[in-house]
Design goal:
Blueprint lengths: L2 H18 L2 H23 L8 H23 L4 H32 L3 H28 L3 H8 L2 H10 L10 H41 L1
Helix pairs in contact: 1-2, 2-3, 2-5, 3-4, 3-5, 4-5, 4-8, 5-6
Keywords: Membrane, Transmembrane, Transmembrane helix
Protein name: Transmembrane protein
InterPro entries: Cornichon
Length: about 220
């Protein structure tokens, strides 16, 4: 194990300590630190995938895919307005798919009492990715000059995420899932509806952008 990987492992262990001390604020800090750690750990895991479990490799591919799309969405802004709107819409579509998948897994757990560890393994990487890439969406909309969209549709999700994390209602924990599943289900439904609305609004904005682009070219 190299020095850089040891440093990241130490950071991960310290985030675990935050989850157990300091009340709600400590828990929030721990979850955010863990999300940040997991969002960059894929660099080490994908270098030597045989050293890690299937769950860790799955989590790494989720984070890598999310960051590649985030990077291309931001970079495309400097090349084409239509392209960057299209990639932004694709980004939001993946958020909707991730929210749908997370809700489906939670409902399966509630109906069939499946393994809580499996629920955490499948949903946690998707939710962590949303926590770390929410800022990418916010920056992207500000770059496009869509201040009203960022203010009403992206920014409110940040304090909501903070609130849900502090109440342990965002990222499933296998050890306490059995008593939190109702709240997790309810908020997962709310977030899915919200993300669906955001997707529809972005689709309308993309259509407006395309019409404007065609009108200028004619």
């Amino acid at each position: 194990m190299n020095d850089k990987e040891s440093c990241f492992l130490q950071m991960n262990s310290s985030s675990g300590e935050h989850n157990n001390v300091g009340g709600n604020s400590g828990g929030v800090i721990g979850v955010v630190q863990d999300a940040l750690y997991q969002s960059v750990q894929f660099v080490f895991i994908l270098q030597q995938p045989q050293r890690y479990s299937r769950a860790e490799r799955y989590r790494s591919w989720v984070h890598l895919s999310g960051w590649i799309l985030s990077f291309t969405t931001i970079v495309s802004f400097f090349y084409s307005t239509v392209l960057t709107w299209g990639l932004g819409l694709l980004f939001q579509l993946l958020v909707v798919v991730a929210a749908s998948f997370s809700l489906f897994v939670l409902l399966e757990y509630e109906d069939r009492s499946s393994d809580g560890a499996e629920v955490e393994r499948l949903t946690k990487p998707l939710l962590q990715l949303q926590l770390t890439t929410r800022w990418v969406q916010l920056v992207h909309m500000l770059m496009l000059g869509q201040w009203w969209f960022a203010l009403f549709f992206i920014f409110p999700q940040i304090p909501l995420d903070w609130h849900l994390v502090s109440r342990h209602l965002l990222v499933p924990d296998a050890t306490t899932l059995w008593k939190q599943v109702k709240g997790l289900d309810w908020w997962a439904k709310v977030k899915l509806v919200y993300q669906g609305i955001v997707f529809v609004v972005q689709l309308i904005l993309l259509v407006v952008c395309l019409v404007s682009y065609v009108a200028r070219g004619s």
